[in-house]
Amino acid sequence: MTETAPGELLPVAFTAYEDRAALARALAAHVAEALRRRLATDGRAALAVSGGRTPTLFFETLSGAPLDWAKVSVTLVDERWVPETSDRSNAALVRAHLLRGPATAARFVPLYTGAPTPEEGLTAAHAAIADLPQPFAAVVLGMGDDAHTASFFPGADTLATAIDPRTDAKLITARAPAAGEPRITFTIGPLIGADALFLHIEGAGKKAVLDAAREPGDPMERPIRAILLHSPRPLDVLWCP
Ligand SMILES: O=C1O[C@H](COP(=O)(O)O)[C@@H](O)[C@H](O)[C@H]1O
């Protein structure tokens, strides 16, 4: 972990793209390359992606990548505890925009189990992810305007545990005032342990949020900072206006 002196910014590997399409092409190429590398050595590979509004074009671009998709498992870094019939479902987003074309052959492992609450579904969700090839070949994070990433929300009941790399559990539940609904999320360990870790953000507002999180401060207030602090290498950030 890198602690910073006052005034020192946490490092990132930042690339700016001219528009969403250029970013989507570059991110899809990086992710496909990471998956191919792992397929070449292990014969299987897993990818964890974010939900929300940002990734649709990236998903659609990646879905056409020439890959042995039948040997790829896809899961989510986090999920809102809603069924796939909800327009808030991250799983529904993945099915609609990523699991199409060549990527239809991928195995999808959703985190929502149908239990009434994420706390009641946690054991089954852990069982569902148990045979995902680990570490992830690639993880693509998003970030909200409040500096949350995955479901690491400021004020979340489990945040301190979720962002502690010593936490053993791979998944944890999360409830936070700003989260909308109860959540389930991968904890920080499996995310930063990925072969390739990306942050995909768009717009001047999110760049400003990231810049603020790079300043000295408490990751409990700006949870993306926990990723910056604990990632074994500077986080690969892909951004467009
Ligand atoms: O709730 C969530 O939000 C973040 C950011 O979403 P966006 O709509 O601002 O792109 C997302 O990364 C996360 O997976 C999702 O559950």
TrEMBL record:
Q: What are this entry's molecular-function GO terms? A: 6-phosphogluconolactonase activity
For whether the record's keyword set contains Repeat, the answer is no
Sequence ranges assigned to domain Glucosamine/galactosamine-6-phosphate isomerase in this UniProt record:
18-228
Q: Which reaction does it catalyse?
A: 6-phospho-D-glucono-1,5-lactone + H2O = 6-phospho-D-gluconate + H(+)
Q: Which GO terms describe its biological process?
A: carbohydrate metabolic process; pentose-phosphate shunt
Q: What class of enzyme is it?
A: hydrolase
Superkingdom is Bacteria
Q: What is its EC number?
A: 3.1.1.31
Q: Which UniProt keywords apply?
A: Hydrolase
Tell me which Gene3D superfamilies the record gives.
3.40.50.1360
Q: Write out the pathway annotation from the protein's UniProt entry.
A: Carbohydrate degradation; pentose phosphate pathway; D-ribulose 5-phosphate from D-glucose 6-phosphate (oxidative stage): step 2/3
Question: Which family does the record claim for this protein?
Answer: Belongs to the glucosamine/galactosamine-6-phosphate isomerase family. 6-phosphogluconolactonase subfamily.
**What NCBIfam families does the annotation carry?**
pgl
Q: What does this protein do?
A: Hydrolysis of 6-phosphogluconolactone to 6-phosphogluconate.
Stated name of the protein: 6-phosphogluconolactonase
Q: Which organism is it from?
A: Azorhizobium caulinodans (strain ATCC 43989 / DSM 5975 / JCM 20966 / LMG 6465 / NBRC 14845 / NCIMB 13405 / ORS 571)
Q: By which gene is this protein encoded? A: pgl
